[in-house]
């Protein structure tokens, strides 16, 4: 009987133990004397966070105990806390235990890897709970023994409710530390921390050196972080800054409970600080709210001492403060020594991120005049500012560091002390410049009056041009029955090459060759472009030598040439057996002559002689874009060096240039044009790497505001860049070009070709691969590996999302080029949800047989 009772109790004990273990792996709480092993988790009540073991390389030998978002794969940015980030464990031999005395211990077999070192005060009253906030809390009765939110050594991903700062009482610092790399969460090179100085400032440090400074707290946000304040409402997250004798810390908090959004901040491996948000209650995706540094001006002291960094469309530039002059690369120094006097004047610099406050002195709240007088009374002070919030008046000695202007109204006014000679110079400038402007205005008015008088004597020249119809190429019909008059104002009515009479003019209409010659002659007659004779072109190209050949395609061959005056030209010669006949040639000649934009290739002239059709274009020193973006994946080392020339800034400038060129074609030009064959080989790069859209042979003129053009029975284009509706049904619109643009952007970012990507990447094309990475929160992995860190993550992610919007299957879901340019030029993004690209434009030739097609299989 006793033996039976003993076995019964043993069975009950084992059953209770395994039930407890099971509950530990499915609930949010773990009690004393229980443990977690690999495969078991704690899950918060709302199933937002999980605690358990994970591996970053699918290896049991390199495992970690941590907390991550349930719906995201554990990785950088999704893991919010790691117990053993410095010391991985073999997860098959590891266990996480809450001991009977209230201590949390991570074991690898018998070795203690990590411990909280806590001890409970009562018996069986200690429990561990994973909260919906992501905080892991060890409770003992009514007190908190330990919590992950205050684990100062391991803030990897920052969540609302965490502190970032320091505690003066315990000498504890709460800081955010980057990972070493994407597969190693041990502490990396970057730390996000508030430095303990007279005026605390939030910094990102790179190996203890200042890398980025957020600026002072002004009561609403960080001065150098204006977009943080601007987007608080959108993210339903508020920011506070606590400064007292005991603590100094920065904290984000949800404004409502339950919160309509989720928020997390990540210090990335490359040093960028990002905030992401997700709207709850739906199947949305995490979106980037902001990221810093945003540009070179955000890099600490980018312009050197006493120099202001300003962002412009073309990049950033540095400018000395008033009264200072440039010195080498170290910034600026005073033009004249500062003679400290109570009569010194101050120069006002507006909308500034105020200088580094390491040596600054807080003076308390006071008026602007009182702050000025205080600065004047101290011979060591060179600048002052009055900051709203806790600090009030601040004065600076010595050199001023880390200055930049803020273009969205988030800065402060900074007043810089001037030497007496600088004040006199400013007064002189204030008098002379208005006088010069007045004189210039007077000259302009006089010039306009003279011009109007002479212009009355000008004649009007009427030329008959073919009527251009909606949807037509410039010359798709040989028999033109309608015409319209174009009135040309000419100062002296002089015409060039007027030896062709009206009879010959009409006779030229009879053949396509004659019509092309007529176009060339008309352009020349209007004085827009010269007409070259064939002999000049042959001399310039060494009689069309193969050594001068730049490239060839369905249209013919392009040669490099050099005119007698030394000017280099590109000579586009139509082949007599070309797949693109006279219509395409005439179309390109007519369109380029009428379209003038910085990002379109410029037409220099034409030549129609001896049955030759030749267009002369500006020469592009760097040839086409495809030679650069795919070079990193070429076999030849010399090709790979080309790819490395395209750093992130250059890639972004190319993307913006192409977008502006397309916007001009679609909306801003006198003709609304659909290109229809946009691809990297048709994007040329000049000596400054400015992109120029070329090859308008199959472009269409489109009038009206209809969303979709009628079908064509002859889809023309290049596989990999053709929109689904155009490839499958022959329907084209402005959104067809938008699709092609999106593909090009993804190729520029990745350095890989869409058409061939699926051959080595699990049958996903580049579009589908980019979408998959976006959904998994790993978008940066698509970036070409020759793009060196650090890079502005927010710009890259903005471009990726914009590109994915452009390649949506349904043309109605794609943005217009106006919206694309807006997204590239600002932080504002369309809220259109991304859909997975399901239709690929990389079919083989046999996939499309319902229509007559003219498809380029490889980029030319």
UniProtKB/TrEMBL annotation:
Membrane protein topology class: Single-pass type I membrane protein
Mention one GO molecular function. Answer: protein serine/threonine kinase activity
GO process annotations (BP): recognition of pollen; response to other organism
The family database entries (PROSITE patterns) matched by this protein are listed as:
BULB_LECTIN, EGF_2, PAN, PROTEIN_KINASE_ATP, PROTEIN_KINASE_DOM, PROTEIN_KINASE_ST
Instruction: Summarize where ATP binds, as residue positions.
Output: 573
Where found? Cell membrane
The record's catalysed reaction(s) read:
L-seryl-[protein] + ATP = O-phospho-L-seryl-[protein] + ADP + H(+); L-threonyl-[protein] + ATP = O-phospho-L-threonyl-[protein] + ADP + H(+)
Domain Apple residues, every copy: 332-419
Which residue numbers delimit the Bulb-type lectin domain?
Answer: 27-151
Key words, A-Z: ATP-binding, Cell membrane, Disulfide bond, EGF-like domain, Glycoprotein, Kinase, Membrane, Nucleotide-binding, Receptor, Repeat, Serine/threonine-protein kinase, Signal, Transferase, Transmembrane, Transmembrane helix
Q: Which residues form the Protein kinase domain?
A: 544-831
Specify the domain of life of the species encoding this protein: Eukaryota
Check the record and name the InterPro entries matching this protein.
Bulb-type_lectin_dom, Bulb-type_lectin_dom_sf, EGF, Kinase-like_dom_sf, Pan_app, Prot_kinase_dom, Protein_kinase_ATP_BS, S_locus_glycoprot_dom
Q: What is its EC number?
A: 2.7.11.1
Q: Where is the signal peptide?
A: 1-24
Q: What class of enzyme is it?
A: transferase
Q: Which Gene3D superfamilies match?
A: Bulb-type lectin domain, Phosphorylase Kinase, domain 1, Transferase(Phosphotransferase) domain 1
Any Pfam family from its record, for instance, is S_locus_glycop
- GO CC terms of this entry: plasma membrane
Entry's transmembrane regions: 427-451, 505-529
Keyword Repeat listed? The answer is yes
Family label: Belongs to the protein kinase superfamily. Ser/Thr protein kinase family.
Know the name of this protein? Receptor-like serine/threonine-protein kinase
Q: Supply the source organism for this entry.
A: Zingiber officinale
């Amino acid at each position: 009987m006793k033996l039976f009772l003993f076995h019964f109790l043993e069975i009950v004990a084992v059953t209770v133990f395994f039930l407890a273990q099971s509950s530990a792996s499915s609930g949010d709480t773990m009690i004393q004397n229980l443990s977690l092993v690999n495969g078991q988790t704690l899950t918060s009540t709302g199933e937002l966070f999980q605690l358990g073991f994970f591996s970053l390389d699918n290896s049991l030998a390199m495992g970690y105990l941590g907390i991550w978002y349930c719906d995201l794969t554990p990785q950088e940015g999704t893991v919010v806390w790691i117990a053993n980030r410095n010391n991985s464990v073999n997860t098959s031999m590891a266990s996480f235990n809450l001991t009977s005395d209230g201590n949390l211990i991570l074991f690898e077999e018998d070795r203690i890897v990590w411990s909280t070192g806590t001890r409970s005060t009562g018996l069986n009253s200690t429990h561990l709970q994973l909260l919906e906030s992501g905080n892991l809390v060890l409770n003992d009765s009514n007190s908190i023994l330990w919590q992950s939110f205050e684990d100062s050594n391991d803030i990897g991903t920052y969540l609302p409710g965490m502190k970032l700062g320091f505690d003066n009482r315990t000498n504890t610092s709460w800081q955010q530390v980057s990972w070493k790399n994407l597969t190693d969460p041990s502490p990396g090179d970057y730390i996000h921390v508030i430095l303990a100085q007279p005026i605390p400032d939030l910094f990102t440090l790179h190996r203890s050196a200042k890398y980025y400074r957020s600026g002072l707290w002004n009561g609403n946000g960080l001065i150098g972080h204006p977009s943080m304040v601007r987007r608080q409402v959108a993210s339903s997250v508020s920011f506070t800054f606590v400064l007292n004798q005991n603590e100094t810390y920065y904290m984000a908090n949800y404004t409502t409970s339950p919160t309509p959004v989720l928020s997390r901040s990540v210090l990335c491996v490359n040093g960028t600080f990002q905030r992401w948000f997700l709207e709850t209650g739906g199947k949305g995706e995490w979106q980037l709210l902001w990221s810093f540094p945003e540009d070179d001006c955000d890099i600490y002291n980018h312009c050197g001492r006493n120099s202001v960094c300003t962002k412009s469309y073309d990049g950033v530039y540095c400018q000395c403060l008033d009264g200072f002059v440039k010195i080498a690369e170290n910034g600026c120094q005073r033009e004249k020594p500062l003679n400290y006097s109570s009569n010194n004047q101050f120069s006002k610099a507006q909308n500034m991120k105020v200088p580094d406050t390491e040596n600054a002195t807080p003076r308390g709240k006071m008026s602007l005049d009182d702050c000025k007088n205080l600065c004047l009374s101290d011979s060591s002070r060179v600048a002052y500012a009055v900051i709203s919030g806790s600090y009030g008046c601040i004065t600076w000695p010595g050199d001023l560091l880390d200055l930049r202007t803020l273009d969205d109204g988030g800065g402060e006014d900074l007043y810089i002390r001037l030497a007496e000679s600088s004040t006199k110079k400013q007064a002189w400038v204030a008098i002379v410049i208005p006088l010069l402007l007045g004189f210039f205005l007077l000259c302009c008015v006089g010039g306009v009056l003279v011009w109007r008088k002479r212009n009355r004597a000008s004649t009007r020249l009427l030329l008959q041009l073919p009527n251009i119809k909606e949807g037509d190429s410039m010359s798709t019909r040989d028999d033109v029955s309608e015409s319209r008059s174009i009135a040309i104002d000419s100062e002296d009515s002089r015409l060039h090459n007027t030896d062709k009479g009206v009879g010959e003019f009409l006779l030229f209409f009879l053949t396509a060759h004659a019509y092309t010659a007529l176009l060339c002659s008309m352009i020349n007659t209007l004085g827009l472009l010269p007409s070259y004779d064939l002999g000049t072109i042959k001399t310039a190209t060494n009689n069309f030598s193969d050594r001068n050949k730049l490239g060839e395609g369905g249209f013919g061959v392009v040669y490099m040439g050099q005119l007698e005056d030394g000017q280099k030209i590109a000579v586009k010669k139509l082949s007599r057996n070309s797949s693109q006949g006279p219509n395409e040639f005439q179309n390109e000649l007519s369109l380029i002559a009428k379209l003038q934009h910085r990002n379109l290739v410029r037409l220099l002239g034409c030549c129609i002689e001896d049955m030759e059709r030749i267009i002369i274009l500006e020469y592009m020193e760097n040839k086409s874009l495809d030679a650069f973006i795919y070079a990193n994946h070429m076999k030849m080392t010399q090709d790979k060096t080309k790819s490395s020339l395209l750093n992130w800034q250059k890639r972004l400038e190319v993307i913006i240039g192409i977008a502006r060129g397309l916007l001009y074609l679609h909306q801003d030009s006198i003709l609304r044009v659909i290109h229809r064959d946009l691809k990297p080989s048709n994007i040329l790069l000049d000596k400054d790497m400015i992109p120029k859209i070329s090859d308008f042979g199959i472009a269409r003129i489109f009038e009206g505001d209809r969303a979709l053009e009628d079908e064509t029975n002859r889809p023309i284009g290049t596989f990999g860049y053709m929109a689904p509706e155009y490839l499958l049904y022959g329907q084209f619109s402005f959104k067809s070009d938008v699709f092609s643009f999106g593909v090009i952007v993804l190729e520029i970012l990745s350095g890989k070709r869409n058409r061939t990507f699926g051959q080595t990447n699990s049958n996903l094309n580049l579009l589908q691969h980019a979408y998959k990475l976006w959904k998994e929160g790993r978008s940066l992995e698509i970036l070409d590996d020759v793009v060196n860190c650090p890079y502005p993550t927010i710009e890259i992610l903005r471009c990726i999302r914009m590109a994915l919007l452009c390649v949506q299957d349904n043309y109605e879901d794609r943005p217009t080029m106006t919206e694309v340019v807006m997204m590239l030029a600002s932080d504002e993004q369309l809220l259109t949800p991304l859909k997975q690209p399901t239709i690929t434009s990389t079919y083989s030739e046999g996939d499309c047989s319902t229509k007559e097609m003219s498809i380029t299989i490889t980029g030319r």
